[in-house]
Amino acid sequence: MIDFSQLDRTIHEKGRLSIMTLLASRSEPWAFQDLKAQLDMSDGNLITHLRTLEKAEFIAGEKLTGDGRPQTLYLLTAAGRAAFVAYLGVLEQILGISK
Known about the structure:
Layout: H1 9-12, H2 14-24, E1 30-31, H3 32-39, H4 43-55, E2 59-64, E3 71-76, H5 78-95
Antiparallel strand pairs: 1-3, 2-3
C-alpha cells in the first residue's frame, strides 16, 4: 500500500513545488522578479508561497539594496535541499523506481 502521507505537504502544493524545483535547479540565487516571470505567478501568490517556504526554513531570502531598484534573492537552505531530496525519494517509492 502506498503511503501518500509521507509527501511533505509544504512542498507538495503546485506553486511551492515549482519554486523548490527552480531553486534546486541551480546553485545561484533566483531574484523575485525572475521567479515571478518563470512561474507566471502574481506578486501576491508568489510571496505567499515564498513566505510559507521561508517559515519552514526551506528557503532563505536576502533583500539587496544599492544603486538600482531593491531586489530580493532566494535560494534553498541545506534543510530545504534535504527536504526536496526526501520529497523526490518518496515520489520514486510511489512510482516504484527506487534504487
